[in-house]
Each structure stands twice: as C-alpha cells, then as structure tokens.
Design brief:
- The radius of gyration is 27 Å and the shape is globular.
- Helices cover 47% and strands 5% of the residues.
- The protein is mainly alpha-helical.
- It starts with 26 loop residues before the first helix and ends with a helix.
- It has 2 domains: 19-165 and 183-197, no CATH class; 198-254 and 261-311, no CATH class.
C-alpha cells in the first residue's frame, strides 16, 4: 500500500497475448484491411490485392512484395507527405524513421515499455528489415501506422470530421485539406455508414459476425468486454461460407405450437437471412476476382515469353573468337 499523499500510477488491464498462428485470426488484420478500404484506393490500384486473404499472404511472405510495399508507401505519405526514399530497398529505414519521430513524444503506442516509460523501436536489433520479419511484427507495425494516421493525418481527420459534421473554427474560412472539394473522394462515401464498421449480425450465443467486403470471408468475435474474448476467421471460401449458414440453421431449435421465438433466436434467424442474401453478391465478386487473376496471370506469361525471346535474340557484346580451319590449312 502506498504511503499517504503518494500517488500510484494505475495501469490498464493487459489483454492476454494472442495464440493465433495465422494473420486471419488476428483482429489487427481486419482493422488494417478495413482502414485500407475506407480511407484509401489501394485495393483498386495494387495488382493482386483483391481480398483480405491477399493481405494475409503478403504478411506471411518473408520476401519483399508489391502489396506490402505500396501499403507502406501510402501510409507513410499520409503521415509525412514530403517523404522520399520509398523504394523497396529503403522502405524499412523510412518506416523506422517515421515511427521514431512519433515515439519521441509521450504518446503511448503499442510499442510502449512501462519499465522504460518510453516507446521502443520495433526495428532495434533487427538486421533483416521489415519484409523478412515475422508476420506478427509486420502486422503490429501496420496497425500502429493505421492508428497514427487516424490521430495525426490531416486528410484522414478531415474526412472523419466531414462525415460526422464536425466543423472547426466556424468563424474562419476553411482552407487546405479541410476545405470543401479538396478531397477526391465522393461526398457519398464520407458518411457515417461508410466509415463506420458495425457487426453484420449476432447468433443465439451473442457472438458477433463481421463482414468487411464482398468476399466469402466471415469473422466472429465473442464478448469484447471480457479478457477471454476471442477473434477468428470462420469462412474463406464459398463452401465454408455455405457451411456457416447450414451450421447456424442446424442450431435453431424447432418452434413448438404456441411458442414464441426468443430474442436470441430472432437475432440468429436474421443473421441467417442476411448471410443468404449475400450469396449472389459473393458469386459475382468471386467471378470478378477470378477474371482479374486470370488476366494478371496471362500478363505474367506474356512478359516471361517476351523476356525469353529477348534473351535468345540478344547479340553478343564480345566479338566471337574463332578461325576457319580450312583457310588456315590452305595458308600453310
């Protein structure tokens, strides 16, 4: 017990570490992907980036890849628009420098050390760089960059303010980022419904179901107010999506004559209906993604064939050293 008059620092509760072995079962993956969809146009700009699974595969890779590189570039430019040195070879150093600048303040990040009373550089002692790091560290860095953007990026803060009708300095004429028409994003996309992210539905056990795009991916979470709360992906393919619906149907108890459905059963029935209504949209999205991937694969094949032809027809830079034996014998 502390002495009278001595204030003790209260510590917030510490959530138990995740036991997930894949990014799909970490809430940070959904957090980062949802941010990308709502505040950037990266999904339509990066080749091969069509679903949450593409982001997860990029995180699992230990090699530099186009998806993570362009995500990092966009995040850094949102925070520091004048940043240079954004090529693949220097991106790790640039990310470390941007984080270090924010770590100088007393703002607690996910890399805060209670013993040191300071933020710790996640790159300290690393020789391999960002891409060769474990997927867990890469995901934490992406999460931290997202949180910094939501807090410090003028453009993103202005987007949120416009959606919620927040006006700063009403007596002054708006200029710059916050001015009307300064953003290329359509005004219809800046409303609360688009930027907000609510559970898609609940089952009878009050588990929350989350859907972030038109892919078959479904996430579930239990009570978020408990330390034992869990997060996991339960559907990735269309077959798994259909299996989730069938499982929900099988757990609904039959209704007896004169009996009314409980509130929890009504919630689950509503969830089943909403999930079934998405099937056609999911099929269209799967067909679109398959078409995009096929076109991308054809482009890669054509590029490989062009490179092969170029290699075969490339002239030798050095003059060949040979003699005609017939001429040599005649001269002798």
């Amino acid at each position: 017990m502390a002495a009278p008059g001595v204030r003790t620092e209260r510590k917030g509760h510490v959530c138990p570490p995740s036991t997930a072995t894949h990014p799909m079962d970490r809430w940070e993956s959904l957090f980062v992907y949802a941010f990308i969809l709502k505040f950037t146009n990266l999904k339509g700009k990066i080749q091969g980036f069509e679903t949450p699974m593409d982001l997860e595969e990029a995180l699992m890779s230990r090699e530099p890849n186009d998806i993570l590189t362009k995500i990092l570039i966009r995040f850094i430019l949102n925070l520091k628009p004048q940043t240079r040195n954004l090529n693949t070879d220097q991106i790790s150093t640039t990310v470390s420098g941007v984080l270090a600048e924010y770590f100088k303040t007393n703002e607690r990040t996910i890399f805060w050390d209670d013993n040191l009373k300071a933020n710790v550089d996640p790159f300290e002692g690393m020789d391999c760089g960002f891409f060769a790091a474990d997927w867990d560290l890469k995901l934490k860095i992406l999460r931290q960059l997202v949180e910094l953007q939501l807090t410090h990026s003028l453009e993103i803060k202005a987007t949120i303010d416009r959606a919620w009708g927040v006006v700063h300095n009403k007596h002054k004429k708006e200029k710059g980022v916050g001015a009307a028409g300064s953003s290329a994003t359509a005004s219809s996309e800046l409303d609360r419904q688009f930027l907000g992210f609510q559970p898609y539905g609940y089952d009878a056990k009050r588990a929350r179901y989350w859907v972030v795009d038109n892919s078959p991916r479904i996430y579930t979470t239990t009570n978020p107010w408990r330390l034992s709360s869990s997060f996991k992906a339960i559907s990735t393919t269309r077959e798994e999506y259909a299996a989730v619906i069938e499982n929900l149907k099988s757990t609904i108890p039959p209704l007896k004559k004169g009996q009314r459905r409980s509130k929890s059963d009504v919630l689950q029935l509503s969830l089943i209906e909403d999930l079934e209504n998405r099937v056609e949209t999911i099929d269209q999205e799967l067909a679109r993604v398959a078409k995009v991937r096929k076109k991308l694969e054809q482009t890669r094949i054509l590029m490989a064939q062009a490179e092969l032809r170029q290699t075969r027809t490339r002239r030798q830079a050095q003059k060949p050293d040979y003699v005609y034996y017939n001429q040599e014998s005649e001269a002798s």
